[in-house]
Request: fold
Amino acid sequence: MKNRFLKNSRLISHQLIDLKLKEGMIAVDATVGNGNDTLLLAKKVGDCGKVYGFDIQDIAIKNTLKTLKDNNLNNRVKLIKDSHENILKYINEKLDLVIFNLGYLPKGDHSIITKAKSTLKAIESVLSYLNENGILIIVSYYGHLGGEEEREELENYLEKLDQKKFTVLKMNFLNQINSPPILFCIEKII
Reply:
């Protein structure tokens, strides 16, 4: 049981990161939360790579910084307390991998959620800065108030992306209860 490949969207997103991200690459965690994805990204990019991490909550930045310091990896990450919709205010270089976890901070205030308008603005910005063959991973937790609206708008946006420029994949679990997260993965072709 412990070696399951299709356990959940978060695990699959980490497997994609593990396959794609190499030493020296540049990655973004657009929603750092408690720092688990940020830590994985920092490990993968190595000493010569870079990770940018965004969140609007002080507690998320604090938790992520602690996780990074506990693993001696905080020197590889620039944490930014701001909305992911403002990514381009802080980044002006090409990106190899970006990950979003949409919803609310686990064990945090469930009334503070990602919202469609800022998420779509961030995704549009990120897509313009992805390297050729760069990957955007989105884990959409939508089983909360406002989550379904964000998921719908996200899916409507992604299905209209030019197939000559992007490949868009949607993975969802059909036989799981309680609104299991949906995984979207976008690869930039050109």
